[in-house]
């Protein structure tokens, strides 16, 4: 049976050397960012295959860009929540880390979220090693579909946001549907840009590096606010357990990773994680 006691968790953490936090959509839920699969999640209302696959982008790049523009607008108005902040402190301050894990030589965040909130929670001027590994990319990066150039992109040039467009579907006369020429294009070759995020069937970012950290270094994995339904992150807890490490799950609900968990804390991570890591 997994342990649910904060004191036992803190004791195990204090003996760990390489700690990794693996975050999913629930990590940002308290900031008002919609999740994918839960109540109110995107995939309840829309087909993932219409929006988050390379085929969807080929079929209707305008619709897919509108979806990401809509999400950019939500994220721009959002603020990091207490879960982002406690993790940011431990990633960026060795003295704070030493208080809860005196033997630790690393505390890293791997996030499936593309919302940039974990980076925004960090103090200015942190070393690159404190930055999150964004396994599924970043909402504010775009990649050229022709030459592959990747760059920051905050453009908001679409005539309409995605949700408004959905609402207007019933009233086609008033609908102003943007066209491909309204989408962002590459400054180097003129090719169509796409959001630099990882869609189903695509290779996650920094896969070799994350696989190395998970299989060769991590001895304590903290899994926060993710279903564990999506590979490769869904199998990271198995890999850590196989290598002799420990796993703690923080989630509102049961997850696919509960069976690998040494510790389970059920509840909102913006509260439970702060309690566990303070
Ligand atoms: C709280 C909370 C609170 C809420 N406190 N908790 C069949 C066909 C095709 C592909 C496959 C297939 N079978 C398997 C695959 C592979 C596929 C996959 O896993 N599919 C499954 C769905 C079946 N995976 C891939 O394709 C991946 N690529 C890959 O494996 O490549 C291999 C490769 C290697 C080498 C070369 C080439 C290839 C890529 C997956 C990409 C996923 N992309 C998305 C979209 C990203 C961009 C975007 O954001 O738009 O990533 S989908 C979506 O799911 C998003 C998320 O990051 C990801 C995971 O979601 P997550 O975090 O679990 O969120 P939710 O919403 O599902 O759950 C929220 C959780 O939080 C819940 O548990 C709540 O209870 C909890 N919660 N509030 C604590 N306050
Ligand atoms: Zn280009």
From TrEMBL:
GO cellular component terms, semicolon-separated: mitochondrion; nucleus
Residue span, Deacetylase sirtuin-type domain: 1-278
Chain ranges passing through the membrane: none
Compartments, record wording: Mitochondrion
Keyword annotations: Metal-binding, Mitochondrion, NAD, Transferase, Zinc
Matching Pfam families: SIR2
Molecular function per GO: histone deacetylase activity, NAD-dependent; metal ion binding; NAD+ binding
Positions bound to Zn(2+): 144, 147, 186, 189
Active site (record annotation): 136 (proton acceptor)
Keyword Cytoplasm applies: no
Family (UniProt): Belongs to the sirtuin family. Class I subfamily.
Protein name: Deacetylase sirtuin-type domain-containing protein
